[in-house]
Amino acid sequence: MSVREAVLANLGKITDPISGKDIVSAGVVRALNVEGDTVRFVLEIDPKHADQMEAVRATAQQAAEMVPGVAKVSALLTAHSQKAPPPDLKPKAKPAAPQGPQAVPGVGRIILVASGKGGVGKSTVASNLAAALAAQGRKVGLLDADIYGPSQPRMMGVSGRPASPDGKTILPLRNHGVTVMSLGLMMEEGQAVVWRGPMLMGALQQMLMQVQWGDLDVLVIDLPPGTGDVQLTLAQKFAIDGAIIVSTPQDVALLDARKGIDMFRQTKVPILGMIENMSTHVCSNCGHEEHIFGHGGVAAEAEKLGAPLLAEIPLHLDVRLAGDGGVPIVVSQPDSKQAEAFYDVARALVGQGVA
Ligand SMILES: Nc1ncnc2c1ncn2[C@@H]1O[C@H](COP(=O)(O)OP(=O)(O)OP(=O)(O)O)[C@@H](O)[C@H]1O
């Protein structure tokens, strides 16, 4: 029996006081991850029962610690998401009047990945984060809303036009455990699209509401760079759980990132934190590390803004080659230092109950 199976077997002996079933079959145990001698999992609970479930968490931790070969156990409580019911595709007599931000049917949480300017690695972060969350056992979707340069089809290794068997709903593609949809998949190859206001709103609405996302714990949205219509529409019209701002250490990128942060603050989207990308350069020949774009800038900025610094991702040739090859580094080289930085972010987000 593997360590994972042994842990699950022990956890399966613990009763969930809410449903009366055991905590594994009740779906309370989520994101179980075994790495070497370390076991991590979360107990997804209704916050109303937090006090009662703390005792269950302690028992679950002990039960996992009893498994031979396990040295360290991290068992956390996280609030379960208030999922919207699955889509009702029956035609309605009249469309409901819009009331406040909309939830996306079946989708637990929505996280935006944003950057002040282009080319800082926002899409790289979004694809790796989505794949790392999927590897943690989360049900993950990735929407590429970068209308200016949709790169997720290439980075996630998906191609082909998504099918729409009924002409109303769109079937997304899937790779690396992630359900993927991109505006790029809906355009003709090499076609330049000038998205004008209403058309853009329509496309976004369609991507969120007509794509059959299925039952997702979290939908990661890769935004276009800057603070344009896509960001504003999403922040104002949809229930967004948080935004992650990606920046390089260069000052100019930081200034732009600040604008992005201001916009999310104004639209009341919580800032989950900042990620410094291309933090240090790691030579792929000798492993030598150099701070070619300076160092610590994003950390200092994050502190000033009161936002956590979620990760410092090194600039490494393998990250680019992995992205270009359609297999994110967290999948192609899960044990590398570069991948580890993304896994840390994924674990932190799961631990905080936001992903
Ligand atoms: N940490 C890294 N190490 C090496 N290459 C990287 C790293 N992060 C990103 N890159 C590469 O830099 C280029 C730009 O990255 P990416 O497309 O993710 O940026 P972006 O911010 O989404 O850009 P845009 O907004 O223009 O789409 C890509 O070729 C990517 O593979």
Automatic annotation (TrEMBL):
User: Looking at the record, which segments are called Disordered?
Assistant: 82-102
Q: Any keyword Hydrolase?
A: yes
InterPro entries, per database record: FSCA_dom_sf, MIP18-like, Mrp-like_CS, Mrp/NBP35_ATP-bd, NUBPL-like, P-loop_NTPase, YlxH/NBP35
Q: Name one GO molecular function term.
A: ATP binding
Q: Which residues form the MIP18 family-like domain?
A: 4-74
The positions annotated for binding ATP are: 116-123
Q: Which UniProt keywords apply?
A: ATP-binding, Hydrolase, Iron, Iron-sulfur, Metal-binding, Nucleotide-binding
**Could you tell me which Pfam families the record lists for this protein?**
FeS_assembly_P, ParA
- What does it do? Binds and transfers iron-sulfur (Fe-S) clusters to target apoproteins. Can hydrolyze ATP.
Record's subunit section: Homodimer.
Q: Its family?
A: Belongs to the Mrp/NBP35 ATP-binding proteins family.
Which PANTHER family does the UniProt record give? IRON-SULFUR PROTEIN NUBPL
Protein name as it appears in the record: Iron-sulfur cluster carrier protein
Species of the source: Aliisedimentitalea scapharcae
